[in-house]
Amino acid sequence: MDHRRREGSALVMSLFIVLVLSGVTVSIFLVNMSHKREVSTAVNESRLLYLADAGITEALSEMAASIEKSQPVPADVGTKTKPMELKEGNYYVDIADQGDGTYLVTSTGVAGVASKSVAAVVEKSEGVFDHAVFSGNSSGDPTYTMEFGGTGTSGDSITGNIYSGGDVEITGDATVSGDIHASGTITGGTGKDGKTYPIPDIAGMDYENNHDVDVKKVFDTIGNSVTNNELGGTAEQVHEPSPAHIFRRNPDDRQEEIDGTAKDDYFLEDPFMPVKDFTVPETGKEGHTISLSGTESYPGPSGTNKVYFIDGNLWVHNKPFGRLRFKNDDPEGAKVTFVVKGNVYFSDDVYIVDPAKDGVAFIAIKDDLEPDSGNIYLGDPRYGTLDKMEAFLYAENDFIDNNLSADGSQEVELIGNMTAGNHVAINRDFVDPDDGSVTHSKLTVTFDDRLSTGALSLPGLPDPGKGIEGFHVVLWRELGAE
After folding, report:
1. Per-residue CA distances from 172 to 157, 161, 184, 188 (Å)
2. Using one digit for the tens of pLDDT, what is the confidence trace for 185-223?
3. pTM for this one?
4. What domains appear along the chain, each with residue ranges and CATH number?
5. Rounded to whole angstroms, how far apart are CA atoms 438 and 152?
6. In the chain, what are the helix, strand and coil shares in percent, each to the nearest 5?
7. Residue 102 — left, alpha, or beta (φ > 0 → left; ψ -120 to 50 → alpha)?
8. Can you give the pLDDT at residue 35?
9. pLDDT tens, 421-442?
10. Cα R_g (the chain), whole angstroms
11. β-sheet bridge partners, residue 323
12. Paired residues of 367 in beta bridges
């Protein structure tokens, strides 16, 4: 009897253990299934977010491409019925112009029957070619202020956006018709402070190796001294078929200017054209033509759509003509970029013939061996003949006044843009020592937006800076599933 009772107890215990183990097994199975569902859900969520983010990226690319081609920003990228396809699923994007310079971009990722959306507020990135006047303040000077002033008709007039890597101060009757941005404070106007923009990557351009015409090398190889009484003095020049024929080096009738610089001086003046061969309609003033080689009657390879690299200084300064224009009879027009490893000096006017297709850029870059380099000087210290420029100007260092006074240029007008990696540092207020009166040399800048919109392309322009092209995201948030 006791034996049978013990066997029964053992059986019950065995059944209990089996039930416990079964319960544990079931629990482990259920936990494992739950974990797998959680992992699967997380994977699906990640996949949907990846698809939606891919849609945002593609939308930004399409928007930037439309701006570059001067086309309207698209209203969508793919649609719900015809989405864009990727390996892991699909996406479609709606783009809405919010009317304040920003766009609401809503992207939906779809995988099977599941979907998830993200929304981003984006705005067009602005850089040096989106501003009439730009000062990057690369030196980090905490006291730097971009100043505009003058009273009455002498008040500065800026049409276009401006940016200062320091402060902005607008006084008197000066006006700025555009957005005002500054990393510091804004006085005398309203705008956005606390904003920063990168400066162009000059080092990355490696102009010493990336150019079309090495002007110094051409002169060192084939240049010879020629006396030209019309253009002035004896200077080195090269034969007409060379694209570099539009320069004369170190003319001895401008010895004072040459003695004041550390490097060779190249003067932009074409010895194969008449000194005065055109008249500016609105002023009646005569000027000198710079003829680019390789078109119609001008011999040699094409001189247009080229980067001219000059290891030295470049001058637009010749009293006999006082102004010059660029001319190219080719259907594409005159398109040139001058990169100067030294300083650029503007004492005379610069014009283009066709404002729709012509364009010229002057870029002054620093020479590590010369402290006074990478600057653009405005003004004529002798004759005060600088009045108007039609050009895109970039100084890796500063813009500097060169006698913009009562005895010099009373007003300087620029159609294009003025960009400094460091400072726009033009002192245009001068006190008469006799009566204490103040004279202000008026600065008028009218922004030429052709580079910004893509209507004009010039060779060898510097990278505007990381993250500055196209559009960038201001705000981003995840939306619920549809």
Report:
1. 11, 19, 21, 9
2. 999 999 999 888 888 888 889 999 999 999 999 999 998
3. 0.77
4. 2-125+469-478 (3.30.1300.30), 128-453 (no CATH)
5. 13
6. 20, 35, 45
7. beta
8. 45
9. 999 987 667 766 677 777 788 8
10. 33
11. 349
12. 370
